[in-house]
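Protocol step 4 of 6: structure prediction from sequence.
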Amino acid sequence: MKLAIATITIWIVGAGNAHADTAAELVARGETLAKDRHYSEAIDAFKAADRIERRARHACLIALAYTRRELWPQAEIWRDTCQKRATPADPVPEWFAAMTTQIAERLATANAAAVDIRVVPEDAGATLSLSSLSPDETFEPRTIHLPPGHYVITARAAGYAPAQLQVDIADKTDRRVEIALTRPVAAERRRPTALLYTGAALGVAGAATAGWMSYEWFASRRSFDAWGEHIDRYRIARWTTIGLWSAGAAFAITGVVQRRRNAETPTVAVVPLAHGGLLAVGWQR
């Protein structure tokens, strides 16, 4: 049964790949959709072709479809993308100049404000995104035309924290906006807390009493008389060592947790018992 399922899965995947559209087929489909004035669907087809093969012509086709929809920010961005991509092997279409003229003429009368977006520092190499655009439509600092509405502009650059600016457009008044990028504050290196130091000190003290305990033990083994003389001190040293090491471990573990979780200063309590004591450590966040 497992083999049959695997065979069917491979066949389905293979069939899907065999019938995948090529960039040329997607462009042809988009052009047909555009002729029927289905510009949104045409843009999707042109973008799909561009994901397969980044070409100047694909960007210009997207710009033209956006121009037909009178979505000026997108039309300007993709038109400029087309121009930047152009090479002798992949030139702009023959109708590029006419499209550029048409965009300029439409913008002269359209209800849209020219917004000059600047980013500081200028050499940050920032890319911008606009809340009204698709995520794949990013652009460099520039002037774009925005119709009335509320917009959120996001600037991103390597080595800087993302920054946002909200802009409200009410009329055709031109404006200039500036987004300031800041480098992220480096995470402060966490220093060992006092609890860690206390735990280490108790550990060292425990090591010292462990040496005392060992001495009393070996001394008690020398003779029967020595046993009675040293065994009580050995027991005191043993329980002192256990207590110091236990307390040291508790302080050290609490210090590590406090540093990682940024907890408040803990409360330490010692409760005496019949044959020792109870060490309690607690904190609140």
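Step 5 (inspection) to follow. The chain has eight helices and eight strands.
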